[in-house]
Amino acid sequence: MTFQPTHVRDEAGNAFGVLTNPFFVIGIGAAGGAALGTLSNPVRIDPTGTTTQPTDVIDRAGRLIGTSPFVVQTDVFTGTGNGTLIDVSSRPLKHFSLFVTAAGGTPTSWDVRLDGALNGVDFTSILTHTGVVGLGLTLFTNANVTPVLWLRARVAALVLAPATSLTVGILGVQ
Questions:
Q1: pTM (2 decimals)?
Q2: Whole-angstrom Cα distance, residue 32 to residue 25?
Q3: Does residue 93 lie within any of the structural domains?
């Protein structure tokens, strides 16, 4: 049996986010709701306590909190528009990758951008993925260092048919 959660919940059980491509979510707490682990003292997931533990947390406003040196976001599009706005101002990112896949066939054409900004308003394209690149291929910034405080995927142009949706994934690292 596979558990595939679709909502992120806070300590009181209130849903405040939707996972578009979830891996797993583990909520660990003691009786009465007290947390067993914190960012500074996480619950260990290795038996000997010698490996670095994941402590990435996203708050209700979508801001990244914690120490993880990367962020991953996947958005599904059926038309043009902006994906999820990601605030990484607490730990700026500078290296990126972008991938595009589709459901139901290959789109006629697409123009997908990974945009970055320093103020969350004035975005500049970091990477551009089009039909010339090819569906299912990943683009990388390679040696280009592009420090940003805000990220988003953006579909600038799309002729979807015969596909039914376009999935855009971004990865940013420090």
A1: 0.62
A2: 20
A3: yes
Q: Is the pLDDT of residue 29 over 80?
A: no
* pLDDT tens digits, 114-139: 999 999 999 999 999 998 888 988 89
What is the domain extent for residue 28?
Answer: 1-51
Q: Which two tokens stand for residue 108?
A: 């006629």
Contact partners, residue 57, CB within 8 Å, separation at least 6: 39, 64, 65, 66
Domain count, the chain: 2
**What are the φ/ψ torsions at residue 98 (nearest 5 degrees)?**
-145, 130
CB 141 within 8 A of CB 97: yes
At 27, list the tokens: 């909520």
- Which among 47, 46, 40, 85 is positioned nearest to 67, based on CA atoms? 40
d(CA 30, CA 22): 24
Q: Is residue 80 part of a domain?
A: yes
CATH code of the domain covering residue 132: 2.60.120.1110
Strand order in the sheet with 70-77: 70-77, 165-173, 95-103, 138-140
Establish if 163 belongs to a structural domain: yes
Phi/psi of residue 33, nearest 5 degrees: 90, 5
| Residue 59 is assigned to a structural domain of this protein | no
Q: Are residues 142 and 83 in the same domain?
A: yes
